[in-house]
Amino acid sequence: MTVLTAAIVLAACTGQPKDNPARGEITVAADESLQPLVEALCRAYSGVYTDAKFNRLYKPEQEAIRTLLRDSARIVFATRDLTEQEKTALSQQAVQTRTQHIATDGIALIINKGNTDSLITMPELNGIFTGEIKRWSQLKGGNQTGPIVLVFDNSNSSNLNYMLNRFSIKNLNQLKLFSVQSNKQVIEYVRKNPTAVGFIGVNWISDGDEPLSRELSQDLRVMGVSEKGSPAGIADYYQPFQRNLGLETYPLRRKIYIISREMHSGLGGGLMTYIARDVGSLVIEKTGLWPAIPYNREVYMKK
What we know:
- By secondary structure, the protein is an alpha/beta fold.
- Helix content is 33%, strand content 23%.
- The chain is built from 11 helices and 12 strands.
- The protein has helices spanning 3-14, 35-48, 61-69, 84-92, 122-129, 158-166, 183-192, 211-216, 242-246, 267-277, 280-286, and strands at residues 23-31, 51-59, 75-78, 98-112, 119-121, 149-152, 177-179, 196-201, 220-222, 224-226, 253-260, 290-291.
- Strands 1, 2, 3, 4, 6, 7, 8, 9, 11 and 12 form a 10-stranded mixed beta sheet that branches.
- Helix 10 packs across helix 11.
- The termini are far apart.
């Protein structure tokens, strides 16, 4: 038996982990609305640690979390923490979880470039989701004609769940709601349908240096949203971009978390540390989101 073979057998017998913070291969699950962010973080980390490999699964958020519960993914990127029931299920498996808030994201409301009704208030959005407002002409200063069509990436997505929870909606029968299969398909649908308003994770269109982001943001308008019922002027409306997320002026913002079931010092923990203590926050900034822990820039002044 060679020394290498003996080492492999010993590792298998002792249960030694196959990965560490600098090398190995793990599966990462994420809500599909967070895909550009997750891709950027995983690519950046693998660029530093070339022996680190992340197999990415993009699913509706609830399905992504289920992969963590079934031990089909080591970590999950999500817009919520685990529920008490989910924590109990993992506790029964003798699994300890770790949750880390990494960024603030926003739900972007996108409309066709030909639609000039690019401002909306939270009371108007509430009216749309409760079924009281059904047509564009019912909005204040509305110029677009026709019914308001709400377009989401998936019937189980975090985008839809966020909006339903925000307005305490239980019954969808009053809504003209259309679901596709991805945030990218939401964008494509809105481009072709002037009466549609699409709901996407803003990181799909907020990285100006990313070719796909630039391509997807073409021929669209991003709506400005006001918290007030009767805004005094244009300054009361905010779009879901970085500064407004950080200053908490954009109403439809949400937190992004990494949830890990890793029980040793492994690749998942390495990625979490990279985001919290290293230049991972710069990657988050580049995607147009607001990092939970901004990168500490030190400036030395010479006299």
